[in-house]
Amino acid sequence: MTPSSTLRIATFNASMEAGNYAVDGGPLDPSALARNLASGAHPQIRNIAEIIQRVRPDILLLNEFDYIDDPGAGAEAFIHHYLKVGQKGQPGIDYPYYYCAPVNAGEPSPLDIDGDGVASGTLGDAYGFGAYPGQYGMLVLSRYPIDHPRVRTFRQFLWHRMPGALPVTHPDGRPFYDEATRLGMRLSSKSHWDVPIVVGEQTLHLLAAHPTPPVFHGPEKRNAARNYDEIRLWADYIDPQKSAYLEDDKGQKGGLAAASRFVIVGDYNASAVEGDSHPGAIEQLLHHPGIQADPVPGSDGGRDHSPDNPYGAQHTAAWRARVDYVLPSSCGWRVIQSGVFWPTRRSRLQRLVANRQASSDHRLVWLDAVLTP
After folding, report:
1. Are 270 and 232 in contact (CB under 8 A)?
2. What is residue 179's three-state secondary structure?
């Protein structure tokens, strides 16, 4: 790829987790995604593939893609049985390179994370909310080589090690977490990944995460605090003046070097103007001097979905908020355009986004940018 070529980078919370494949509200089957990937015939996964084929990103993060230990039953099955197969007349698309790894969601812990007095292991007491290990996982797909030895993950980074971490207390000021939980709780509800991708002679760092929703808690608002600090991890990671405290899962300390080229991607469950996130949560990225936050991606479908909402065109989720982001570094990129894949109600492609069972309750967000020296 030449330095003047344009890269399309995208993020998509694709709802490819067992909860979206349960039959008539029945029990979750952790093997559901692997089984449906092997068939090549599941309608929701075919629609996901069609959306990707229509947008054709060069680099893509999928959130809520259940982690499967066997890559042949996960990433490779998705690529070979769905993405490389043309859907509804679209040309297939190949991703020769991918990255997936364990996440905290559903990973049993010995802690009382939900504060109910019982350490149950999973769901509210998993290191990240989930019913089984690997639920709500992540997958990076790329047309360009991934420098696997240099990938950094922060799945096991402990929340209390973040200087000035937001406190979680009862309304009367008492600590919400017992001391064992406070000291043992991981910050990332899934994981934080720095995935270096080599494009020609240049390297970009794809910074991928999926912070917890800032809801589903009590007056202590523990998930809002965690969401804020999960977002803060990237704000600190890209600032050499603030990143010294960070230590990845291999023991390497610090963050990105100054003037590194990066793109932050993922469902961050936070909006600057709507929702229940802690004040200033996503602004830690949107107002960061090292990040290009404009242009804001939008769609006619979002406007059509919320015609009376002044922010409707910027929404990335069916529940009416902008929560999914593709944010490039201030250096190393010239942004061309961005958008959200959201057909209007009158479009023949509305079938692809009709509901979560059709594809997802989120929309694919994309950005076109040119690498600069």
Report:
1. no
2. helix
Residue type, 281: A
Of 59, 60, 57, 48, nearest to 88 (Cα)? Answer: 48
Q: Where are the domains of the chain?
A: 6-371
CA 101 centroid distance within chain: 13
Q: Report the alpha-carbon distance of residue 111 to residue 185 in Å, rounded.
A: 8
For 6-371, CATH gives 3.60.10.10
Give φ, ψ of 186 to 5 degrees: -80, 150
Which residues are bridge partners to 171 per DSSP? none
How far apart, in whole angstroms, are the C-alpha atoms of residue 140 and residue 138?
Answer: 7
Side chain identity, residue 222? R
Contacts of 289 (CB under 8 A, 6+ apart): 330
Write the pLDDT tens digit of every residue in 299-335.
999 999 999 999 999 999 999 999 999 999 999 999 9
- As a dihedral over the C-alpha atoms of residue 82, residue 85, residue 91, residue 94, rounded to 10 degrees, the angle is 70
Q: State the Cα–Cα distance between residues 147 and 163, nearest whole angstrom.
A: 30
| CB-CB contact of 330 with 259 (8 Å) | no
* End-to-end CA, the chain: 13
Q: Considering only CA atoms, which of 325, 204, 328 is closest in space to residue 265? A: 325
Question: Nearest 5°: CA angle at 141, between 54 and 204?
Answer: 110
Distance between CA atoms of residues 262 and 371, nearest Å: 11
Q: Where are the alpha helices (DSSP H) in the chain?
A: 32-39, 43-55, 75-78, 179-184, 222-237, 283-286, 300-305
The SS3 assignment for 245 reads coil
Task: Write out the two tokens for 107.
Answer: 């990973």
* Pick from 217, 306, 229, 212: nearest CA to 266: 212
Distances, alpha carbon 348 to alpha carbons 74, 90, 366, in Å:
30, 14, 21
Distance from C-alpha of 286 to C-alpha of 280, rounded to nearest angstrom: 10
What tens digit of pLDDT does each residue of 79-92 get?
A: 999 999 999 999 99
